[in-house]
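User: Run a structure prediction on this.
Assistant: Running it now.
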Amino acid sequence: MRIDRLDLLAFGPFTGLSLDLSAPGVHLVTGPNEAGKSSARAALDHLLYGMPLRTPYNFRHDYAALRLGAVLRRSDGATLEIVRTKARESLHTPDGTPLPESALAPFLGGVDRQTFTSVFALHSAELRAGGKTLA
């Protein structure tokens, strides 16, 4: 799976920000402290696996207003555009049509939340620890 675009519509410090991730390869997000790097990382997790009952990312937007979007791409080129909100039925298309969570399965390729956050969405401390292990 590849995420072509991540839309931080109303999440953490972000309102209406889109990140173009369509280029192949590894994406490194850098910036000063409090720039939103950790919020963007959490947004990926919340988008793909659902928003937890309580999330600290509602400091600018109320729970009911939290909203993330993305365009996902499979290795065969098929795409799926999704929107995730903080609601009971939280996954849907941009036009509001509800989607079952199972709609993500072909795009996730069996990668569960734990694997995603520990292998594909690393923060700097994890990268440093991995580098030490390799050395």
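The chain has a mean pLDDT of 90.
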